[in-house]
């Protein structure tokens, strides 16, 4: 029986040229930054310990490596005859050829912000970042500060020095093309939690605030606030968690507090108080900041601090300043002090009821305010003196209209 064969013709060459494939990748080099503040108390007792002897900070972690600050009160090298204080940052963990940039700052403790800074940050380095070859490698200055000058400087206060070190560890990675193009939506967790609060489903705790009752969920409150966590689940938790009375807080403030816990944002201030008054919004923000601090809601506290910074005004700045002092809001405090110290604002603020409250509740802040006022005065004198030198009357005796320079805060 015969077989049947199939004849297969050879493939014909393609008449079209192949499309070349194209790929790309990107190398990114950046720094992982961190800082550490090192206080040396009893500095005078450390003097005389000898050349090459040091005081070391605790180790701190930046970029996956441990670091430490070394201060040599009598200097690091014998050739300097103990005339200088030496300051170094050292790699304190195992590592080979660790590349990093640094900043060493001796802090001015007079409040004038005239710090002594040696920094790699914010400038282009001709030879690139510094390389530390092994554990114990150092970067710094043998002649950081002359000892005799340091003893009478503003860097030394109550026999204490304060040093801040910033480290930026260089990291590189290469990014290739993604194999997918799925657009990821933003998180909607707060939307779900917020709607849970609005629905009232599954609530298991009540709060009585200024005669009003608010329902909530224990687990949500405890997850968001360590204070609520201790109050509801801690060893000293309230015995009656079915209805907890909240003292010294108004109902709208507690309602806004719950809103933030569930929605992760502040409610509309004008809607909350039923007024478009800027003064009313500021008052509510003040109460909310105090409530956030009370329940250790740091993110909410920062939200309120930002709103109060935006709303600084003559009639409310004194009470806001007192609030910033009581709740350790340093940025808000600085904004308020600068605002009050301006010559065009100072007299008007001093005539408000809030300023009387500030004097009674925070007398120490007045000293800081005087320092700000004095600083503005110094700047004004310098500016006016400079203009007089620059715009001297011409030789022919004609008058010159000298404009007054408006002082700016440094």
UniProtKB/TrEMBL annotation:
GO annotation, biological process: cellular response to salt stress; protein ubiquitination
Pfam families assigned to the protein according to its UniProt record, in alphabetical order: BACK_BPM_SPOP, BTB, MATH_2
Low complexity: compositionally biased ranges: 14-31
Entry-linked InterPro entries: BACK_BPM_SPOP, BPM1-6, BPM_C, BTB/POZ_dom, MATH/TRAF_dom, SKP1/BTB/POZ_sf, TRAF-like
Coiled coil feature spans: none
Family annotation (SUPFAM superfamilies): POZ domain (SSF54695), TRAF domain-like (SSF49599)
Pathway recorded for this protein: Protein modification; protein ubiquitination
Ranges annotated as biased composition (Basic and acidic residues): 1-11
Domain called BTB: residue spans: 203-262
Residue ranges of domain MATH in the record: 33-167
Ranges where the record places region Disordered: 1-33
Family designation: Belongs to the Tdpoz family.
Purpose: May act as a substrate-specific adapter of an E3 ubiquitin-protein ligase complex (CUL3-RBX1-BTB) which mediates the ubiquitination and subsequent proteasomal degradation of target proteins.
Protein name per its UniProtKB record: BTB/POZ and MATH domain-containing protein 2
């Amino acid at each position: 029986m015969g077989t049947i064969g199939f004849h297969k013709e050879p493939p014909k060459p393609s008449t079209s040229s192949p499309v070349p494939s194209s790929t790309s990748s990107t190398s990114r080099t950046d720094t992982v930054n961190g800082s550490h503040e090192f206080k040396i108390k009893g500095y005078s007792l450390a003097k005389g310990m000898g050349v090459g002897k040091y005081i070391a900070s605790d180790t701190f972690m930046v970029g996956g490596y441990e670091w430490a600050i070394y201060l040599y009160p009598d200097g690091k090298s014998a050739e300097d005859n103990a005339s200088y204080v030496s300051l170094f940052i050292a790699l304190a963990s195992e590592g080979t050829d660790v590349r990093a940039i640094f900043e060493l700052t001796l802090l001015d403790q007079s409040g004038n912000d005239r710090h002594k800074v040696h920094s790699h940050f914010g400038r282009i380095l001709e030879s690139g970042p510094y390389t530390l070859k092994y554990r114990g490698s150092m970067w710094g200055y043998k002649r950081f500060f002359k000892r005799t000058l340091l003893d009478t400087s503003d860097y030394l206060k109550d026999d204490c020095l304060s040093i801040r070190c910033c480290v930026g560890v260089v990291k590189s990675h290469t990014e290739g093309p993604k194999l997918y193009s799925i657009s990821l939506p933003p998180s909607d967790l707060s939307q779900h939690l917020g709607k849970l609060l609005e629905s009232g489903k599954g609530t298991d705790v009540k709060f009585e605030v200024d005669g009003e009752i608010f329902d909530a969920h224990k687990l949500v409150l405890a997850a968001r606030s360590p204070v609520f966590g201790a109050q509801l689940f801690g060893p000293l938790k309230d015995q009656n968690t079915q209805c907890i009375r909240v003292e010294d807080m108004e109902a709208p403030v507690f309602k806004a507090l719950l809103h933030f816990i569930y929605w992760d944002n502040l409610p509309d201030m004008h809607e909350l108080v039923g007024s478009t008054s800027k003064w009313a919004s500021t008052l509510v923000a003040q109460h909310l900041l105090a409530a956030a601090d009370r329940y250790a809601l740091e993110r909410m506290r920062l939200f309120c601090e930002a709103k109060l910074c935006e709303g600084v005004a003559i009639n409310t700045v004194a009470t806001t300043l007192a609030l910033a002092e009581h709740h350790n809001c340093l940025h808000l405090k600085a904004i308020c002090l600068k605002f009050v110290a301006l010559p065009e604002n100072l007299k008007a603020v001093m005539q408000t009821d809030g300023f009387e409250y500030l004097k009674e509740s925070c007398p120490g802040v007045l000293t800081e305010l005087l320092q700000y006022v004095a600083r503005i005065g110094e700047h004004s004198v310098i500016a006016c003196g400079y203009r007089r030198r620059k715009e001297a009357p011409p030789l022919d005796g004609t008058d010159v209209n000298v404009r007054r320079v408006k002082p700016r805060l440094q």
